[in-house]
Amino acid sequence: MTDDPTLVALASEIRACVRCPLHSTRKNAVPGDGALGSVMVIGEGPGRNEDEQGLPFVGAAGHNLEGLLSEAGLSRGSVFITNAVKCRPPENRRPTRGELDTCHPFLRRQIEAIAPRVIVLLGDTALKEFFPESTLGRAHGTSVRRGDLLFFPTYHPASVIYNSSLKEVVRDDFRKLGELVRTMT
Ligand code: URA
């Protein structure tokens, strides 16, 4: 976990947040975790395990994410991992537009504090936070520059749990991510 003072203060603010109804059903808010390196990874929202532990991607999707990061030559500890919403939506439903909009300023402030070279968007919810008109089918596996930020959309690691035909596609995306990160360093 980083000890960057801005991120630590932001994490405390997130843990105390009551701006949307998700605060009333959470056990723990999940601000995010990892290093202030060149890569930031954004998922959808905490699930049951994440809600219990207060850490992102610690369940089955997290296991898949770690495997995929290793395809890119990255370790979990070398990237910063967070979600579009910081509190678990009940029954793991998709976060509503209102919840996403309420939480978005936290994400923006994390991006500002981390200043990553690449932001990996995992799945449709994360993609639509930045590219509302885009679809994963079109956008996955290629980087898109928006101002100072370089985004890299791909499928959510949980999607391969339910759709094994996506496995190779997602692996291939992460190999491309690895090439991209290597060309930048
Ligand atoms: N799925 C997500 O999008 N985020 C997590 O932290 C865990 C599962």
Can you put this structure into words, describing what you see?
This protein is α/β, with parallel strands linked by helices and 185 residues long. 44% of the residues lie in helices and 14% in strands. It contains eight helices and six strands. It has a six-stranded mixed beta sheet with strand order 1-3-2-4-6-5, sandwiched between helices. It is globular. Uracil binds at residues 43-47, 50, 56-57, 61, 83, 158.
Descriptors:
single chain, about 180 residues, alpha/beta, six-stranded mixed sheet, 8 helices, binds uracil
- In total, how many beta strands? 6
- Mean pLDDT, rounded to whole units? 96
Query: In order across it, which strands form the biggest sheet?
Result: 1-3-2-4-6-5
Largest sheet: 6 strands, mixed
- Approximately how much beta-strand content do the residues carry? 5-15%
Q: Give me the number of helical elements.
A: 8
Straight-line distance between termini: 22 Å
Summarize the structure.
The chain has 185 residues and is an alpha/beta fold. It contains 8 helices and 6 strands, in the order αββααβαβααββαα. 44% of the residues lie in helices and 14% in strands.
Write the layout of secondary structure elements.
Blueprint: H1 5-15, E1 33-34, E2 39-43, H2 48-53, H3 60-71, E3 80-83, H4 97-114, E4 118-122, H5 123-130, H6 136-139, E5 144-146, E6 149-154, H7 159-162, H8 167-184
Parallel strand pairs: 2-3, 2-4, 4-6
Antiparallel strand pairs: 1-3, 5-6
Helix pairs in contact: 1-4, 3-8
Uracil binds at residues 43-47, 50, 56-57, 61, 83, 158.
